Amino acid sequence: MTTAILTMTASRYEAVFNHLFPGDGLEAAAILLCNQGRGKRHRRLIVADVLYPPHHLLERKEDFVAWPFGDCLSPEKICDIDRDEQSIVTIHSHPNGCGRFSKIDDRNDRELFPSVCNWFDDGRPNGSAIMLSNGQIEARTVDVHGTFSDMTTVSAIGDNIHIWKSHKSQRQTAYQEKLAQTFGKGTLDLLRTMRVGIIGCSGTGSIIIELLVRNCVGELVIVDDDIVEDKNLNRLINSTIDDARKRQPKVLAIERAIQKIGMGTKVDAYQGLTNSPDVVAALVDCDVIFGCVDSAFGRYHLDCLASAYLIPYFDVGVHLEADGKGGITSADAVSHYIHPEGESLLSRGAYTMEQVTAEDWQRKDPTYYQQQRVAGYLAAVGEEQPAVMSVNMQAACMAFNDFMARIHAYRFDANAEFATQRFRIVHGCYENAVDEGGPHPLMKRYMGTGDGSLLVKNSTSHV
User: Fold this and answer.
1) How far apart are CA 218 and CA 187, in angstroms?
2) Which pairing describes strands 4-9 and 43-51: parallel, antiparallel, or unpaired?
3) Apex CA 131: angle with CA 125 and CA 134, to 5°?
């Protein structure tokens, strides 16, 4: 049976909660229609629409709900679902606090889902979920034979990141107990089961990786197409002169270092770019991604992936300018948090589409790029900036602490106020900014579309 992940936006999650818990203490139900993302290990079910059966049409009790499922899905609607390759997930509330599927739930699902699965002939996963009064969701797939399989992850993505895992608590080591003392056992257990993607493993990326490993994250997907060179040694954590002499791929050097640390973090390493189908499939399985790239091309692809698959995205950046005489004119450490219903990096001006086009041509056809650049048709592609490890650490730590705040909510102020963080080292000041708008129209068009996104298809079509 295909294992699955269920994810939705924060606003849809809130709407589902309000429908399932109208305040009368009785169970209620809804139907989630989900687009799909085919990951390396899991099928990502992305809630695209919700059907809300009116409460008065349901037989509702404190520990039971019966509803005319067939009345909610006309033959025409089923044809639409089939055509759009969507999955069906029913969800109902447990206002009495029961945190598990009941025997009645088991019986009803075994009666319903063999028929639902037979509506489609492609083996797509369908399933059911329960929501508790504290907002927690537990979900499972149900196959044509009525067999249950827990969904490994359920998430709701917004300014706060809600993630629920189907896992059992594990014994703690001495170093894990130190983390639990700060953030609690629940957050430690979550970190130990999370899969986090890091794209770009050099100046800021290697530091992010070190922070994730030392904070007991269960698995990392690391992506970088470059090799270790002498020029990287001043900022690439755990790199050695031997790595540079052997021109070792950065991802392999970092994977070796993580294994040597021995804290149990697993690594899935890719020497490539974000437009590789294998990389996309690996990132689809991730709970969170960190973008540590300085190219417009890379940021654009991560913007697309985060929007299409509803994956929270932390962008880490550094801007350094030297005057050529031993002085520094600008040194900024920057962290952006991107979620599907908020601004994208494109909206915030972190890159332009003109830069993306120019970088793409420079990568695919340098001669054509140079001709078009001279003619004024393509933007100039920036040169490498100077790099200082302490500034990289400032940016990486801001992003990591932001990540922890959004899964643990430790801030006094609302997380919405920290969409962008900037530390201006030359000026000695810290700035944070609220997310003031919605997604860029280009990203909004494909939000939550998963594998059906033209942005994703275009990203991988030429590989």
Assistant:
1) 12
2) parallel
3) 145
Q: Is residue 159 a contact partner of residue 414, using CB atoms and an 8 Å limit?
A: yes
Is the dihedral angle over the CA atoms 382, 383, 387, 393 positive or is it negative? positive
Most confident by average pLDDT, 61-70, 307-316, 377-386: 307-316
Query: How many other CB atoms are there within 10 angstroms of residue 92's CB atom?
Result: 20
Q: What contacts 213, CB < 8 A, 6 or more positions away?
A: 220, 258, 261, 263, 265
Last residue of a domain, one of 124, 157, 190: 157
CATH label of the domain that carries residue 234: 3.40.50.720
Q: What percent of the chain has pLDDT over 70?
A: 91
Amino acid at 180: A
Contact 296, 274 (CB under 8 A): no
3-state secondary structure labels for all residues of 285-301: CCCEEEECCCCHHHHHH
Name the phi and psi angles at 9, rounded to 5: -75, 160
Residue pair 337/432 in contact by the 8 Å Cβ criterion: no
Whether residues 443 and 417 share a domain: the answer is yes
| CA-wise closest residue to 451 among 22, 173, 38 | 38
Residues 179 and 148 in one domain: no
Q: How far apart are CA 98 and CA 162, in angstroms?
A: 20
Enumerate residues 6+ apart whose C-beta is below 8 A from 435: 159, 342, 343, 416, 419, 420
Any domain includes 352: yes
Q: Check whether 342 has a pLDDT greater than 70.
A: yes
Dmax (CA) for the chain in angstroms is 78
Residue 358 has pLDDT above 90, yes or no: no
Task: Please enumerate in sequence order all residues whose Cβ is within 8 A of that of 368, keeping only pairs 6 or more positions apart, or say none.
Answer: 361
Task: Read off the pLDDT of residues 205-234 as tens digits, 9 standing for 90 and up.
Answer: 999 999 999 999 999 999 999 999 998 888
pLDDT at position 322 over 80: no
The predicted model gives 143-161 an average pLDDT of 95
Domain count of the chain?
A: 2
Res. 37: pLDDT tops 60 = yes
Q: What sign results for the dihedral spanned by CA atoms 154, 5, 451, 314?
A: positive
Q: Which amino acid, 390?
A: S
* Cα 41 from Cα 39, distance rounded (Å): 5
For β-strands 288-291 and 313-322, DSSP reports them as parallel
The model's pTM = 0.92
